[in-house]
Amino acid sequence: MLSDNITRRADGVLCFAGHSVPDLAEKYGTPLYLMDEERIRHNCRLYTKAFKQAFGENALPLYAGKAASFKQIIRVVMSEGMGLDAVSPGEIHTALSVGFPEEKIFFHGDGKTDEDIRYAISKNIGYFIVDNPEELLAVNREAASQKKKQKVLLRVTPGIDPHTYKAVNTGTVDVKFGVPMETGQAFAFTEEALRCSSLEFCGLHCHVGSEVFDETVFEDVIDVMTDFMAELSVKLGLKTRMLNVGGGYGVRYLDTDKHIDIPERIGSVASHLKERCKQLSLELPFFLMEPGRSIVADAGMTVYTVSSVKRIPGYKYYAIVDGGMADNPRYCLYGAPYTVLCADRESRFFAVFDLAGRCCESGDIVQPSVKLPVDISRGDHIAVCTTGAYNYSMASNYNRLGRPALVMLTDNDSYTAVRRETVEDVCSLDI
Ligand SMILES: *Cc1c(COP(=O)(O)O)cnc(C)c1O
Q: What range defines the domain where residue 210 resides?
């Protein structure tokens, strides 16, 4: 199986985290997001333990909340000792409402408004990750008016292509995030930060992309970042106390995807950083990473019920389900691959179907060309695997569909972490 929390019982019933998927569908209804709480904890510990081993107390992994943000997941990652990368007042509010320590929140994003900035400073958020010079001045102004000194990290683009999809590639010179080093703008950006009297420069941030599988991407990132740190040290006498290299480790969506040994990778990145700092006579900075997908993706599964099956002879078979692009837009957005399974039974006879959603868009495909039992029909349950990241968080109310419930699974229990949206919820903001 794709992940060891997905199993089949002897009678063919699909289980997730040890629970029968059809039973959960029966109990909670579909479409349904499932999340394996133990797996989230396990994934957090891959980072927290490896960080402790490599850096002692001088490092912190941040959970990238955009991957999946709701109160219970924040409680879980908080109890595992992670910090948080948040990109909006909504994500910050979610975290603060469950008592997340504000000093461990890093406020991200390339389009922070004055209102966002005012809100985050008023809530004493630990760090701003400042995207560009205009934002820098806006944060400085607001900090001054609230009579505070705001800690900042500056987002720079190291010009590294992580060889991933274009839509999730963020490290090259010409992306919309951060300030490029190659053009000299990142240096000027840092000088500007030092002139801002209500800001405290703490260090640098970069994020080269998502779904990174290449072995040496983070080592390359560290080469470029430490060179820049050395330049800042020599030319400005500036110490970079914190270095945040972003998130991005890939996960397995398909059986053919590689498995990444995260602790091993972190160990190698850490020794590379230590070596580079020694070579360049830099003090080892406080080290941060911001994993999102690799914390939650394989902890998630989406369950649907088949509404109808269309067989167009000589053309195509469709299995149409009770969800779709409203709860999982990722195939529509950038052709994201998924493993799709029949949850009720195994079969010896398969046919190839496009798994289609119920939205009024012909492009509403959850996944094309998936193998399902040839006799699949109305009422059968379909599981889409590895949906823990960027599914609930990207869900919409398109066609006025309510968002699915999100149910957490523990060793011997299950509980609703986010309840299903009703039709009343869907029009609750209308006047
Ligand atoms: C998306 C993002 C992350 C998380 O990336 P994953 O691929 O989910 O690990 C971390 N940092 C920044 C700045 C991001 O934009």
A: 108-291
Residue 84 and residue 167: Cα distance in Å, rounded?
23
Express each pLDDT in 85-126 by its tens digit: 999 999 999 999 999 999 999 999 999 999 999 999 999 999
Which run of H or E residues covers position 36?
strand 32-36
Count the residues in the chain. Answer: 431
Mark whether 287 and 354 lie in a shared domain. Answer: no
- Ligand 1 site: residues with CB under 6 angstroms? 64, 66-67, 85, 108, 207, 210, 246-248, 290-294, 389
281/274 Cα distance (integer angstroms): 10
The 10s digit of each residue's pLDDT in 170-205 is 656 677 889 999 899 999 999 999 999 999 999 999
Mean residue pLDDT of the chain comes to 95
Q: Helices (DSSP H) in 237-319: which residue ranges?
A: 262-279, 293-296
Q: Give yes or no: 427 in active site.
A: no
Helix (H) or strand (E) holding 188: helix 185-195
Residues 117 and 256 in one domain: yes
In angstroms, the Cα distances linking 334 to 112, 167, 168, 429 are 25, 7, 9, 31
Asked whether residue 98 is assigned to any structural domain, the reply reads no
Same domain, 202 and 151: yes
Pocket test for ligand 1, best of 207, 208, 252, 265 (most atoms within 8 A of CB): 207
Whether 349 contacts 375, CB under 8 Å: yes
Domain count for the chain: 2
Give the CATH number of the domain where residue 380 resides.
2.40.37.10
Residue labelled with tokens 């029949």: 342
Which residue has 């270095």 as its token pair? 243
- CATH number of the domain that residue 276 is part of: 3.20.20.10
Beta-strand ranges (E) seen in 232-292 are 242-244, 286-289
> 49 CB contacts (<8 Å, ≥6 apart)?
263
